[in-house]
Amino acid sequence: MNARSLKIIEHPTRWGEGNIEIQAENTCILCTSSVIDSVPRFLRDSNQAWLTAEYNMLPRATHTRTDRDIQRGKISPRSSEIQRLIGRSLRTSINLKAFSGHTIIIDCDVLQADGSTRCHAINGGQIALIRGIQKLQHDNKIKSDPVNFLVGAISAGIVKGKPFIDLDYNQDHKAEVDLNIIMNEHGDLIEIQGTAEKKPFSRTTLNELLDLAWPEIERIIQQQKAVLQTPYPYNH
Amino acid sequence: MNARSLKIIEHPTRWGEGNIEIQAENTCILCTSSVIDSVPRFLRDSNQAWLTAEYNMLPRATHTRTDRDIQRGKISPRSSEIQRLIGRSLRTSINLKAFSGHTIIIDCDVLQADGSTRCHAINGGQIALIRGIQKLQHDNKIKSDPVNFLVGAISAGIVKGKPFIDLDYNQDHKAEVDLNIIMNEHGDLIEIQGTAEKKPFSRTTLNELLDLAWPEIERIIQQQKAVLQTPYPYNH
Amino acid sequence: MNARSLKIIEHPTRWGEGNIEIQAENTCILCTSSVIDSVPRFLRDSNQAWLTAEYNMLPRATHTRTDRDIQRGKISPRSSEIQRLIGRSLRTSINLKAFSGHTIIIDCDVLQADGSTRCHAINGGQIALIRGIQKLQHDNKIKSDPVNFLVGAISAGIVKGKPFIDLDYNQDHKAEVDLNIIMNEHGDLIEIQGTAEKKPFSRTTLNELLDLAWPEIERIIQQQKAVLQTPYPYNH
Amino acid sequence: MNARSLKIIEHPTRWGEGNIEIQAENTCILCTSSVIDSVPRFLRDSNQAWLTAEYNMLPRATHTRTDRDIQRGKISPRSSEIQRLIGRSLRTSINLKAFSGHTIIIDCDVLQADGSTRCHAINGGQIALIRGIQKLQHDNKIKSDPVNFLVGAISAGIVKGKPFIDLDYNQDHKAEVDLNIIMNEHGDLIEIQGTAEKKPFSRTTLNELLDLAWPEIERIIQQQKAVLQTPYPYNH
Amino acid sequence: MNARSLKIIEHPTRWGEGNIEIQAENTCILCTSSVIDSVPRFLRDSNQAWLTAEYNMLPRATHTRTDRDIQRGKISPRSSEIQRLIGRSLRTSINLKAFSGHTIIIDCDVLQADGSTRCHAINGGQIALIRGIQKLQHDNKIKSDPVNFLVGAISAGIVKGKPFIDLDYNQDHKAEVDLNIIMNEHGDLIEIQGTAEKKPFSRTTLNELLDLAWPEIERIIQQQKAVLQTPYPYNH
Amino acid sequence: MNARSLKIIEHPTRWGEGNIEIQAENTCILCTSSVIDSVPRFLRDSNQAWLTAEYNMLPRATHTRTDRDIQRGKISPRSSEIQRLIGRSLRTSINLKAFSGHTIIIDCDVLQADGSTRCHAINGGQIALIRGIQKLQHDNKIKSDPVNFLVGAISAGIVKGKPFIDLDYNQDHKAEVDLNIIMNEHGDLIEIQGTAEKKPFSRTTLNELLDLAWPEIERIIQQQKAVLQTPYPYNH
């Protein structure tokens, strides 16, 4: 009933200002950050930075093959919702007004999917984001520290009447209730999304799941911090 | 700090098996249900019905004009997320396996937008859905009663540190926390989506907002039931 | 054999510089004008204003549901033709060179369709357009009067060998000849589009239909003028 | 002030059941018909044939280059309107219910454009269509004669206050009124589309243009008939 | 076993700075060049010209009708590959840095297809390109001579074990090996694309086909030069 | 001047009938095969299997970030060309008529790109393909052995006048000539694609590059065979 232990590997590939592979057993996601020296058109006259995220699953990340979005010519609603969630959550962790004129793109590519990919994309993306910020600091493009706090995410759910966290595909598939919880290092909520997949749920159940989630998120944020102890730039 | 009072008008337009205009002051949405005697391809060999929802805002539902999705050739991620939420929530209210071979489409067209459109689309869509079911019963296409319960939805948020429900555009725009709550008539949760728009929020705040939400949702469901007392088919 | 009487309601919704609901019995269209302080790229270096129109039917404006254009990712040829006709007709009614740098968008959303929607979209759009012009005058953005004349539109057709005007869906469906006539207040033609839907038609028939159309268009333009007697800005 | 004389070349290219190049001085269009032994999905359970047309201009058919529609990923509204007009007009000339299960596609590719391309596409397309019908008869796939009549088309307009027919690009560009007239061999109207490009026009003007058009259309239909005297199949 | 003799007609249509119809028996392609006084965005700050090519087949260029790319809303991979090949090959023939700020577009529209269309599009496009350059020189927009050399193209293949060049559709269809060879007037290779359609091929076969190709390409380039002897501007 | 040594890892991820990570120093590609028990529509009435390939580069596989194809809504011409090349080459290696009713999809996702990705996608895809065939044999869905031979691929080029093979990004970027060579285990050519990127090249150069390529391809095919010695199914 505990979350799966996380394995976090820095710079599994060569490029990417931040560059993280995060594994929760059979879920494995490559999270990179790319720092770009411009902002999108809608922010051109503002005085702030921008952060956006993209989420994608390789076609054979899943047990049976999933068609690529490009086959239908448009991003799937599911991918679109997830990448908006990742971007929204990570944007709270930094102060975009503390530095301007830069865009950081967080790319989350799921190499292998076994449940909770959106949560672990946030967990890995947070580290990649901080590395991107450190790159800007290292290049003297930001002076101040724009980091508000770190955020962590965990899924929770009710399977056959019992609470579970960090659901794998088998649990997720059968879950009556599906809840994604994103919190910051102070234990405050950043985002909560709960769905009665098969059965309405009581507020008691909601609280029970939130009680289970926080210690795991706290642990994940500790692990993020441990990885970030290694000073930047790291050597390849 | 109370929710706006709802005005629900049945059959404002001539067609639609169900046909509802729902108004919460300056928010005004046309919700229709259409009953189709077939199911989408992915359900062709199953033994169940289907329910889907579409959400759209007229370009001048808003204070300044919003471009139509068709101008860019694809549905906006926001509309896509909302219509998925509406469909998911309303699907819980009926048993799709109790009748097969039919699709019910709930169309929610926002004529005027002043906050909380997704919640009131659910509130109006629920009535339109029941009317669609009644149409099928009236035509002897379903014998049993597939209705599990009614669902209602309300938005809640923190504006300048204070809790509000049923946010209008001005409140929504300034909200630090934005929460959409969908519950059924028994007070159980169907969906909860909370976002720290400007500031992380504590579980105490979450509970405070949930406390405010339930009486309003209960009142909305009472109002839905009052409308549904009129027997079907109603005369035009 | 007369045209249906028109009901014109100003500001049925809150926003839109002009804002008209026009009803011809079961045909009901919301026409708004939006004034934008820029012109499209192709006019950027010219010295004139721009006027464009968009036409859309709600999915359940019709007896059986019509799929939204966005489902196929592109505007239907029918909608495209109609909105080009509306824009072309209304552009003749004003002098775009008399004021520059502004775009007026006329949105025509059919809430309920029972024939002749393109004609009544023009009839309602004309009023919304004048209100948009008055808004610009009220804001001192145009000094001169750019209005050339008002235009009105009516459909006509031959059903079972007999001439009809302002065809409803049942008549339109059976019509052997379908004619849309747009004229200005001086009785001159702005646009004429006639199609032998089921049977070629003689020039005698064409003249008979034109004879029927003008008195009705004249009456419609009188009704537009009556609505426009209320000075701008009207109170909500 | 007369129409340009038409040059009609049969089988300029090798393939196409019908295969016509039609020239009106600098306007030159390749019109082919293709006979396909199936009907579109929406006619699958009906008992009739189908006829559709496609219209396209080569990028350098015009004085300055026009981008291909494919560059924007969708057919231009102008091409779409024109090909719908061609299809609608030619469909009146045959009885689709007299033979079933076949589709005839009329392709009109403008090699060189100097005004009136839509009218001459109809004039050439009519011949290609009859050749397609003859191919079906020759293959014993239709027994009866499904041809109702031949149709011809001519443009007319007012340029600097004077009436013109078969407008070339220079005339069309300056025309105050632009009228396209499609009639059958009996002098009845099939389609009429008139637009006040720069100036509203009176019914007197409309009649004057119609008076000019009919003799030219009659002449064109005579020319079509002369070409069709050559029995099918012609030798390459 | 020889290449088909080429027929090259200059200015078959009225417009196009260069304007060539090239025929190899039943293969017939219209090649035009258009000179535009700007460069694409990606070259805006560079100091060079641009050359691009577009390739398209008319739907009835082939024995049975081929759907237009626009029907699917995107260019077919085959057309895309071919137009990239044409552009790449012709770009080698001129020095884009010798003149800046202009774009030359080579449009290759296949009117009739009987094999080897990509090669003959290059052969005709080369002449159209030089005419475009001459237009720029004639207008005093380029002083120097940017032409490096002329290029010619020929297809080759193995059919039933025997080598062929300039394959027509019947040969191409049955070819075990399909090779497209583009060379310049000095006998150097510009592009070579060989595919084992049905059977792997030895280097001996490759050399045999290259031996056959060069004399034909040399002959084609002689023919290009002969056409280009006529001084520019030619009279229409 | 030798090819980079290849590292081939089997089953780096959990799913995929075949599942290969292939590395040539900093080029790293994930190649999977997916076996599907149906064929595409165009083969439905044939008696054969189908094989297709998809190629994609992760956005941060490259030194600076590359936008995903989905951002523009269509596959890039480069990706499209490459995946067609991979599919075409691998199809020669098996006899699709030896087994029917199945589709094998080869997915090649470039995790890290440092030149020659299309060649190594073929090298890795070949192994994944054989594993897919073995899966079908293991499930008793094919009895016979449909493998014709193995194919290998290598890039070659001229950089500063000197021949190189297996070009990395830096070499590729500066190459005057760029050649991709695909051969089978018998030393016969499957595909050859050569482009004069900066300078036309002689047949002598072509032969010199082909001389260099074959021993490397032979070595690669030996390495493929060594990997395939491990019997299927392998344990995870």
Key terms for this structure?
homohexamer, 236 residues, alpha+beta, Ribosomal Protein S5, domain 2, 4-stranded antiparallel β-sheet
**SSE pattern of chain A, N- to C-terminal:** EEEEHHEHEEHEEH
User: Into which percent range does the helicity of residues of chain A fall?
Assistant: 25-40%
What is the mean predicted local confidence, pLDDT of chain A? 95
CATH architecture classification name of chain A: 2-Layer Sandwich
Describe the largest sheet of chain A.
Answer: 5 strands, mixed
According to CATH, what is the topology of chain A? Ribosomal Protein S5, domain 2
Quickly count the helices of chain A.
5
CATH class of chain A: Alpha Beta
Number of strands of chain A: 9
| Uncertain residue ranges of chain A | none
- Structural class, judged by helices and strands of chain A? alpha+beta
Global shape of chain A: globular
What is the end-to-end distance of chain A? Answer: 37 Å
Q: Regarding quaternary structure, how should these chains be classified?
A: homohexamer
Largest interface: A-F, 33 and 33 residues
Fourth CATH level, the homologous superfamily of chain A: GHMP Kinase, N-terminal domain
| Lateral arrangement of strands in the main beta sheet of chain A | 1-2-3-5-4
Radius of gyration of chain A: 18 Å
